[in-house]
Amino acid sequence: PEADAQLSTSYELRLPLIWTGLLSRRLQTSFAVSGGVNSGEDVVRCLLAGADVAMVTSALLRHGSGFLSTMLAEMQAWMEARSVESVAAFKGQLAAHGTAQAAETFLRDQYRRILSSTPAFGQ
Prior knowledge:
mainly alpha; TIM Barrel; two-stranded parallel sheet; 5 helices
């Protein structure tokens, strides 16, 4: 029998983005975000949070290896729309800055965003 694979969705990206944003400026190490990276825009979100790489396995299993070109085009469109010339120019721009208070503010803002975008039970 064929295994029923559960591929990740963009919705699952929220928690990895929050933690990457909180930790990427505090720890001197590389970050890879996995789980929920399904588009070029998702990759941009990972980079904005401070990730060095984004794992796109589910997207490739779902759409095939040719989808990498689509993801790259989405990233380039995002960058062109904002006149950004390189990944280095925006990497980590949404990461929480140094202080514990800034990290707490960042975490609360992310929590507020999750609550405002999640439908209430029974709807």
